[in-house]
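Narrative of accomplishments. A recurring question from our advisory board has been how the design workflow behaves on a single, concrete structure rather than in aggregate. To address it, we present the structure tokens for one chain from the evaluation set, followed by the sequence designed for it. No filtering or post-editing was applied between the two.
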């Protein structure tokens, strides 16, 4: 993926406000959501070049993986909204208010 396309996706993801989750671009290929009220971090890595999948991994504070999902990515129209829509159910599931 070209740098311009990554920059555009980052801008689009940063503009989406969803129940307090904060978006960060950790390093090339690794996107992340965290919540200021604590709880796990939600990492996701889109791979449009190989098998067109999005891996979503949820880690607790010590880095242990507590949830893992794999989704098919749309082949066309790469947008931050499409990525977010794939990650949103995981964000909702692991929102700090949903702690038991």
């Amino acid at each position: 993926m070209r740098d311009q396309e990554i920059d555009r996706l980052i801008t689009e993801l940063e503009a989406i406000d969803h129940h307090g989750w904060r978006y960060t671009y950790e390093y090339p290929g690794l996107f992340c959501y965290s919540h200021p009220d604590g709880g796990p971090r939600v990492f996701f890595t889109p791979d449009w070049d190989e098998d067109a999948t999005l891996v979503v991994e949820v880690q607790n504070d010590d880095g242990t993986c507590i949830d893992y999902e794999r989704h098919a990515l749309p082949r066309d129209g790469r947008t931050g909204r499409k990525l977010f829509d794939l990650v949103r159910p995981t964000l909702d599931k692991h929102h700090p208010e949903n702690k038991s």
